[in-house]
Amino acid sequence: MNAVEQEAGELAAGLRRRDPALIDYLIEQYRYRLFRYLLMLTGQRHEAEDLFQETWIRVLEKGHQYKERWKFETWLFTIARHLAIDYRRRRHLESLDALLQPADTGRPLEVEDTASASAFEQAFQGEEAARVATALGHLPTSYREVLTLRFHEDLELEEIARVVDSPLSTVKSRLYRGLAMLREWLKDIYA
Amino acid sequence: MREENHERALQLIDKMHLEGLTTAEREELQAHLESCARCQEQERQTELALRAFRAAAPRFDGSLVIRTQMQVRVRALEITENAARLRALWISCALSWVLGVVSAPLMWRGFEWIGHRLALSRVVWITGFALAWVAPAVVTAAIIVWRQAERAVGSRQ
């Protein structure tokens, strides 16, 4: 057994016995990445904070379901994503599910204002980041989600497909369209 | 240069960032970029957009970690307490079942005797016996279902 497998085994065992010290450590370790993913997904700071807390409670409750062959962050983001969809449904807000499954109509640069740009501006720091945030606010949620999983989290395309529970072809199409939109929106900044 | 050559180069630029290129594709793109200012500009824009995207850092409230850790610990305690309570319930349930099985012949005779004394029909006292025998299990099952429903509502809120 190599070191990585041993570490994964220890992680799975710790989650099974609901070891609070391990979960404290994981919260510390993944705090920023999970929060960034949730913020990209929801576009709302308070919602991302609520979901951050709910996600870790769910990790505690469902820890026994974690399999050591899974990459922890893939499992974590999957939980967070399900909770985000559930959160919207429970509060009768706009369905995140619908936002995450836009019709793939082949319109590469169509702009959909799915999240308030100003919400992103408030959540990001720095002048340039604020301008990037404006662009992010104009990206459809499903595109923003796959872009963050690819370029912030460095997940493989297959892992992204697992997190977003979609075929690889859908993930690729969202990535290509998302990148095209992002480039288009940021073009003015660097012109 | 033909338009489809540019389109192909633009596709390869995106593919390079999203999926990676084969050696042949990389060489093809490189060769095109060396002689095409327009596609070079597209490559520069893509690089800048991705650099800006990667650098975008949301503000993070440090107290969120402490609040979350506290909530998780409280929930862990609740789960431990609930598990202990549920274990006690299952043990009492098992004991009640064993006692029920052991006492069934005696209860049967008791109900039979009462049935004779009160001149009840056989169907009536057998129904009474069946109800008395299953009552503890039904009550226990109802408590378990009720508690689980309550927990499910609690975890949804």
Give an account of the 3D structure.
The complex is a heterodimer of chains A (191) and B (157). The radius of gyration of chain A is 17 Å and the shape is globular. Chain A has helices at 3-16, 20-42, 45-62, 72-90, 96-100, 117-123, 127-137, 141-152, 157-164, 168-190. The termini of chain A are far apart. With 191 residues, chain A is mainly α. In chain A, helix 9 (157-164) crosses helix 10. With 157 residues, chain B is mostly helical. The relative contact order of chain B is 0.05.
| Average pLDDT score of chain B | 88
Measured by DSSP, the beta-strand proportion of chain B falls in under 5%
Helix share, percent of chain A:
over 70%
* Tally of helical runs of chain B: 5
Radius of gyration of chain B: 37 Å
- Radius of gyration of chain A, in angstroms, nearest whole number: 17 Å
Secondary-structure element sequence of chain B? HHHHH
Write the layout of secondary structure elements.
The complex is a heterodimer of chains A (191) and B (157).
Chain A: H1 3-16, H2 20-42, H3 45-62, H4 72-90, H5 96-100, H6 117-123, H7 127-137, H8 141-152, H9 157-164, H10 168-190
Helix pairs in contact in A: 2-3, 2-4, 2-8, 3-4, 4-9, 6-7, 7-10, 8-10, 9-10
Chain B: H1 3-18, H2 23-34, H3 37-55, H4 63-117, H5 122-156
Q: Gist?
A:
Chain A is mainly alpha-helical.
Key terms for this structure?
heterodimer; A: 191 residues; mainly alpha; 10 helices; B: 157 residues; 5 helices
